[in-house]
Design brief:
Blueprint (H helix, E strand, L loop, with lengths): L1 E4 L10 E4 L8 E2 L12 E7 L2 H4 L1 H14 E12 L1 H10 L2 H12 L14 H11 L1 E12 L2 E10 L3 H15 L8 H15 L5 H6 L5 H15 L4 H11 L2 H14 L4 H20 L20 H14 L2
Parallel strand pairs: 1-2, 1-4, 2-3, 4-5
Antiparallel strand pairs: 5-7, 6-7
């Protein structure tokens, strides 16, 4: 099976044409970052002028999903605006060139045709490699007058890290734990996933990510438990932290620190000091938490940024 993802009206023969828009000519409607196919079931994927419409966070999930559904050695072709060259044309061009370049940067005002994020060449290459792809070729071409584009051809590489990355992201999607419509939550979740992937087997460092998102850490340790075929103390600790509504408790501690005159960074660090104590408590098997009662409306992903936004909104909405 071969996929043409984000096809719009560009149907390709011999491919299953996918798009998220009912107004498209797709064979099936499906989000690009949440593919409804079995792992290792696809031989080739084309994503032509797609990722700029997804945004940064959905593109990370899109690439992990491409890795998951492709067979070993399967290929992915991505075409997208060449943003650096577009800026060069804009700066050097007359009014007509500038108008064409701006339309290429921002996309169309037609619903669904705007560009959320144009990827620099180096960044897109980095994301492909991080998702487990080996770039076979990268070339520049002119999509339309004054609209330069990039084309990457990449092949799926096997590996433990991309497999874990893909499996974790798939779990987060399946359990509705990845809200990619909220930029602050998406950014926090990416930091957590990055730390979990970079852990290098350091269970203590990985477990600390439960303070930011206990569901993400629990899914990570559950996957490791399944792979390694033995019970995990960390997975059990995460389950206890989830029962204790750890993000709510830390949010409440953060709010109390702000109310007591602490600066935001100091209040957040005080909350995480509580969290580290509760993590040790959970690792010991103690079933009873301590500290403040959890805030019911706490952010699902707790970072300094989401905590500050949560508290600001809470104060604004309070009668």
């Amino acid at each position: 099976m071969k996929l043409n993802i984000g096809c719009g009206y560009n149907r390709l023969e011999g491919y299953l044409n996918l798009d998220s828009s009912p107004a498209s000519a797709a064979d099936r409607l499906m989000p690009a970052h949440d593919l409804e196919f079995e792992s290792c079931s696809v031989s080739e994927i084309k994503a032509l002028q797609l990722v700029e419409h997804l945004g940064f966070f959905k593109t990370k999930f899109f690439l992990s999903e491409c890795w998951r559904v492709l067979k070993p050695g399967g290929t992915l072709r991505i075409e997208t605006p060449y943003i650096e060259k577009t800026f060069e044309l804009f700066l050097a061009g007359d009014r007509r060139v500038k108008e064409a370049a701006l339309g290429w940067v921002y996309g169309s005002e037609t619903p669904g045709m705007n560009h959320l994020y144009c990827f620099p060449k180096e960044l897109l290459a980095e994301l492909l490699a991080g998702a487990g792809f080996e770039i076979e070729s990268a070339e520049e071409f002119l999509f339309q007058p004054y609209r330069p584009a990039l084309r990457f051809d990449a092949a799926k590489k096997d590996g433990e890290k991309p497999a874990l990355n893909s499996a974790l992201r798939r779990r987060l999607l399946d359990e509705h734990l990845a809200d990619l419509t909220c930029e602050l939550e998406g950014a926090g979740l990416e930091l957590i996933i990055g730390k979990l992937m970079e852990g290098g087997g350091n269970s203590a460092a990985a477990l600390e990510q439960a303070l930011y998102s206990v569901p993400a850490a629990l899914e990570y340790f559950t996957l490791k438990e399944e792979t390694e075929k033995h019970p995990s103390r960390e997975a059990a600790a995460c389950a206890r932290l989830a029962e204790w509504a750890i993000q709510g408790r830390l949010a409440a501690e953060y709010a109390a620190g702000i109310e007591n005159g602490l600066a935001a960074a100091a209040a957040f660090e005080a909350a995480f000091a509580l969290g580290r104590g509760l993590t040790a408590h959970a690792l010991s098997g103690n079933p009873r938490p301590y500290g403040p009662a959890p805030a019911a409306d706490a952010p699902r992903v707790l970072t300094l940024e989401t905590a500050a936004a949560w508290l600001f909104k809470r104060r604004f909405e309070r009668p």
